[in-house]
Design brief:
- It is a single chain.
- By secondary structure, the chain is mainly α.
- About 65% of the residues lie in helices and about 0% in strands.
- The termini are far apart.
- It has a domain of about 140 residues: Orthogonal Bundle (Topoisomerase I, Chain A, domain 4), CATH 1.10.132.
- Helix 4 crosses helix 6 and helix 5 runs antiparallel to helix 6.
Amino acid sequence: MRIPEIPNMPIPPATELKRPPRPILEEIYDRYSLEGEGVTDSLEISPDAQAFEASRQLVRRVLAQFEQGYAGAAQQQMAASREELDTALEQQADASPEATTRVILDGITGYIFDAYRTQRPETTAADLEEFRSQAEAGVVKGYEDARSYLEGAGMFGDDIRARAEETVSRVTQGINAFVDAALNQGAGRDQPAEPAPPQ
């Protein structure tokens, strides 16, 4: 394969640089494209890479639904926990629905619930039911946001859809188990309840 030569062109100062009009870009592409050598206009992403991206988007978008409306110490605590989560997501080695569920539930039942309780130190059964409703609604909205993003990126095929739907189902079950355990511990009365750690 012969690499085309690029003509010498003077480089204008940065203040004069502008994006070239579309016809110039098309002419450059046509002139230097490798016609007939398998070059395509699209980039194909491997199924594994799509699964990891879908997992990350689902985690980020679900948890983002909860991270608004907190102030002061709760907001600082949430920001620090979110940084740890983002670091863990970048090193994620498993994009299965089980692993994605675990990360989401760790966030919801961990730092998000802690922030919720910071605003309600005497967490009652009514508070727990409110948390359940908010969590379930946040999961649905986060899933819709992730789906919209992934569809726009052309990465929401049947496999990714099935993984995401299974994750949402598992997360919802986990939220219910977490809240039910807390309610059982408080015997369902309007008294402070301490939830059991998620399993």
